[in-house]
Amino acid sequence: MNLSEQTVSILKNFSTINQNLLVKKGKVLNTMSAMKNIVAKADVEEEFPVDFAIYDLNEFLSCMSLFEKPQLSFNDDYVVISETNSKGKKLKYWFSDPSVVTSPSKELTMPSSEVTFPMDSTILSEVQKAAAVIGAPDMVLESGELKVTDKKNSNANSYSSPIDANSENSAYKFWFKVENLKLLPGSYDVQVSSKRISHFQNQKLPVGYFIALEPESSYGN
């Protein structure tokens, strides 16, 4: 099996959410942060032939980078990485015990959402960049704009960008941690629920993220 560039990009992104990865037989990848406040799911081109667990996904990706065109041959307990169309070098990588890997125990479903909006790639990258520049740990969705700031400091610097939000009630204030926006670059369709959960679905790639809201979030007050 050869992994596509898209699948490798998804794996690299998932490694920023959790270094662990439990892969189930089939064409779906799932991951969950150690704090259980981010869950991501992706449909991939490849069909994995066995269930397997990786304890350090960055290490596994580094192993793959040793090969120009890595080919994966799966066994029950390990995978052999070799050069495509070559009988030369190879690397034997042992799988982890699934019991020591953090992974989603069930598939999440998004509850009814009170606010929806499209977020293009420019807004996403600019908001993340601004948060880094001014050292803002928080992002708030409020009154048709996204703003990054420090919610614990009323005099904190802030950066805001308007969005085309759709809501039946204008009184909402949904807080996120900027560090939880571990999204692949791109444009997203966003749903936000008063039950303190949000969903970011990439508009071009088959990958989506459930991200928990902060306790201070409110709707209709």
Major sheet details: 7 strands, antiparallel
Note the gap between the termini: 53 Å
Which geometry do the CA atoms define?
elongated
Sequence stretches where pLDDT stays below 50 over 5 or more residues: none
What is the helix tally?
3
Biggest β-sheet: strands ordered side by side in the sheet: 2-3-16-15-14-8-12
Q: What fraction of residues sit in β-strands?
A: 35-45%
Helix content: 10-25%
Query: What Rg, in angstroms, do the CA atoms define?
Result: 20 Å
SS-based structural class?
A: alpha+beta
What can be said about this structure in brief?
By secondary structure, this protein is of the alpha+beta class.
Key attributes of the depicted protein:
221 residues, alpha+beta, seven-stranded antiparallel beta sheet, five-stranded antiparallel beta sheet, 17 strands
Could you describe the 3D structure shown?
The chain is an alpha+beta fold and 221 residues long. Helices cover 16% and strands 39% of the residues. The protein contains 3 helices and 17 strands. The strands form 4 sheets. It has a 7-stranded antiparallel sheet with strand order 2-3-16-15-14-8-12. A hairpin with a 5-residue loop joins strand 2 (26-32) and strand 3. The longest helix is centred in the middle third of the chain and has 14 residues, at 121-134. The radius of gyration is 20 Å and the shape is elongated. It starts with a helix and ends with a strand. The mean pLDDT is 94.
